[in-house]
Amino acid sequence: MVTSxxxxxxxxxxxxxxxRLAKREVSQPIWSTLEIPDVPExxxxxxxxxxxxxxxxxxxxxxxxxxxHQSYPRFEVIVVDEHSSDGSWERLQELQAQxxxxxxxxxxxxxxxxxxxxxxxxxxxxEVAKGAWLLFTEADTxxxxxxxxxxMAYSRARDLALLSIAPRQECRTFWxxxxxxxxxxxxxxxxxxxxxxxxxxxxAWASSSFLxxxxxxxxxxxxxxxxxxEILTASGLARRVKALEYRVEFIKAMDLLQVRTxxxxxxxxxxxxxxxxxxxxxxxxxxxIQALGIWGWSVLPFAAMVPAFSFAFWGLDAVQGWWxxxxxxxxxxxxxxxxxxxxxxxxxxxxxxxxxxxxxxGGICLGAAxxxxxxxxxxxxxxxxxxxxxxxxxx
Length: 395
Fold this sequence. Notes:
- By secondary structure, the protein is α/β, with parallel strands linked by helices.
- The protein folds into two domains: 2-24 and 266-380, no CATH class; 31-263, Alpha-Beta Complex (Spore Coat Polysaccharide Biosynthesis Protein SpsA, Chain A), CATH 3.90.550.10.
- It has helices at 2-27, 57-68, 88-98, 119-128, 147-157, 174-190, 215-220, 233-243, 264-279, 284-298, 300-303, 305-308, 310-314, 322-348, 359-379; strands at 47-53, 75-81, 103-107, 133-137, 141-143, 162-166, 168-169, 210-214, 248-252, 257-259, 382-385, 388-391.
- The strands form three sheets. It has a seven-stranded mixed beta sheet, sandwiched between helices. Strands 5-10-7 form a three-stranded mixed beta sheet.
- Strand 2 (75-81), helix 3 and strand 3 form a beta-alpha-beta unit.
- Helix 2 (57-68) runs parallel beside helix 3.
- The longest helix has 27 residues, at 322-348.
- The radius of gyration is 23 Å and the shape is elongated.
- The two termini are 43 Å apart.
């Protein structure tokens, strides 16, 4: 009896969390439709876009092309190549010859060795950048033509020193649809973006896909000289800037910024099995709790349907009391509510809502990847991400 009642209460809490997340996402304005006054061309500060590349031939040309075709009047694009061996450098040189917009190609001073930190390449790009503002982005992103213009106008209107934008996750294969939306929904549940702008909240988080920052704030915060591994550098930089009492915001612009990080089951498993350890707390106990949280949040309501409906197969004699009826009704309400919320979230994020029914499968995979990340880190203290190895510091 006690177990059934407690499980019923837990299912209602999980359904409430899903509803709360869906309501919050629906209530957010569409950033591209906001009334933001354009920055007069005479007052537009120069923005230096700094992008690092190492064996990113699959994505780099699309990314750089989208950056070169921004409508903002004054910007330069700086690509720092870390001695790519897949032809990226040669293709970038061809693109440089074709584009009239300023594109500067640099190579790091020495070939990267295993354990070299990627932030050194970004710092190299900053050294030659001329802009009063810096934009750091990733090779797997796509920027709509008006993104940089609106981001700068929004930053000036809100008196921001740092603006980070969360992209829309591009999902094209079955496993991308299963994994990617669920992961970022879970992160949104844990860390609502609206809290980043709240000055009473000391913590801050950001996305490396789009990080626009005033050079003055960047220099005062120490630049890219803090966290290891690289996947946490954006959030670390945002925290340091906010600690200096600059205004910081983290928003979504899913219709203007897109990213496709991994493709297919193999890449998803390998990629998130390394990244999730740091994203979920960078401590064994925290990662284990988060993995259990993912399973409980996305799998438990569906697993609860098995005992809740056992009497439907075995007859009413299997019902031991009113608590079994309560559990069955609660399970139905929770599952229906969660699926509806999941469908709404996928629509809001412009993802295929027909994959809503794959929610428990995605939860199983994501939780398993988190546990795999925990085991891998216990065996090996290094993090490999996008052909790079980063030494992890104890926290």
